[in-house]
Amino acid sequence: MKLVEEEEDxxxxxxxxxxxxxxxxxxxxxxxxxxxxxxxxxxxxxxVQAILQEEEQDMRWEGFQEKERPPWRPRRCxxxxxxxxxxxxxxxxxEAQLDSSIEINSSLQQSIIxxxxxxxxxxxxxxxWVSSCYPEQENVCQLYATLYxxxxxxxxxxxxxxxxxxxxxxxxxxxxxxxxxNILNGKMLKEVIDHSKLDPLLPEDKIAxxxxxxxxxxxxxxxxxxxxxxxxxxxxxxxGELPQLRDQVYCCDQAIDVIQCFHKHVEYAQKVLGxxxxxxxxxxxxRHFLTDYKAFHAKAMKSKQANTExxxxxxxxCLIQCRDYITNKAHLFPxxxxxxxxxxxxxxIKGSHYHFTSNMLKELKDLYRKVGSSEWLKxxxxxxxxLLAKLDRHIQKFNNLDKMCCQELLGGMHKEFLAEYVRKxxxxxxxxxxxxxxxxxxxxxxxxxxxxxxYFTAAGSNMDWLKDILPNLAGLLKLQDPNTIKLELAxxxxxxxxxxxxxxxxWLRLKGNLSPSDLKKILETITFSKDQxxxxxxxxxxxxxxxxxxxxx
Length: 553
Description:
It contains 22 helices and 2 strands. By secondary structure, it is mainly alpha-helical. It has 4 domains: 2-88, no CATH class; 99-202; 222-255 and 279-351, no CATH class; 369-549, Tetracycline Repressor, domain 2 (Orthogonal Bundle). A two-stranded antiparallel ribbon has the order 1-2. A hairpin with a 2-residue loop joins strand 1 (245-246) and strand 2 (249-250). Helix 3 (77-95) packs across helix 5 (140-160) and helix 13 (335-368) packs across helix 15 (380-395). It is elongated, with a radius of gyration of 41 Å.
């Protein structure tokens, strides 16, 4: 009887010792994230070792029946350890306090920020302090990361059950897509935590409504910003204001403002959403803006106000800069939006070029009548100089355009100037009756070509390929043998796929000694089918067609 009592007392003492030890381990674990001294670290290490030893003993008894095992096995110390850490993490996240120096009005934002801050600080403690107390195979950093992740995720899910104001919505998205990944990808944590094994902080059904809310906010802001810029420019134009000059160049503040406003919001959306594709929805606002801008541009084009020319020049600079921005940042736009935007810009740029070039051609109309006339044949250099002198007075007003815009505009004017020159020659006011006249005319064309090209290049045109147009046509005038003419035409048609039968016929009719039958045979060798012509037109590089703008009857 006494022996039984002694055994019972012994078991009771063992049970109490175990309970005391368990309480000690529990206290150690609960305070582990606040330890700072090496002594405290050593205590934690011993507690961890004891837990793992108990787990090892449990595993030894795993294959035995319950009645064959000691009544205290299994003790499940490791599972209890994980449960305790789970409660520890939940408590610490609940008790997280915001730094009083940070001013945040929203209590919800305070709650989110202080929890994120606590999560980061505690995971850093685990990585730098606690992890050394555990064997590497226990992967304690991943364990803590999972516990903090689940706790934080649960709280954020609760928050999304309610309708959030715009500021809270943005903060939450920024946290999920930018701040939280930055925490896990920090220099120290990314080495010890595999974040790919963690579930999304918020599931798709919770995050999608927030993204829609945010995108609506950003669309509204972009629209407001771009509308304000356009309204400012239209008001200034209506009130007769001239664009400002800076270093004798028109300032195109509207282009800077439009691009900065747009790009700032798109970049911000990419950061907040963590996804470039989702942010593309905002780019639709550029299409809406350009549609409105087109209406303003059309009104300005029709206006006779004193400041209209200057405003159109600045508008042209704005359009070209926007076009280049969209082209260089094409990845920001969905394909359909990019195509629509570039189409709108191309239409407006073409309209601006037409406005300025048509004014040029009107001013030069009387002088152009001399081209291809007997007066031109007698002294083509004088006719060419008169044209360029008057053109120079017209072009002086473009001196205030920025270099890039001026280069493109003058390139277009260069081409139109030359096209009108060729058209006037093709009107056949003169007949070059013999070889001598034809060679003299060809020489005049080459001299004129060099003078025109030198002038436009000095003015800013970069259309270098135009220098060969007149010399190539002059070459046809010098040739006398019909078969040689055919061969030369074959070469020219490869160079200029838009050189049509009408153009060839009009030009060859200048040769008074070319018989109608020879002309007919030459033209018969030039076969165009609609499909072939379309194929040729498709092969033209943008901006390098020429004869398509030379209108002949």
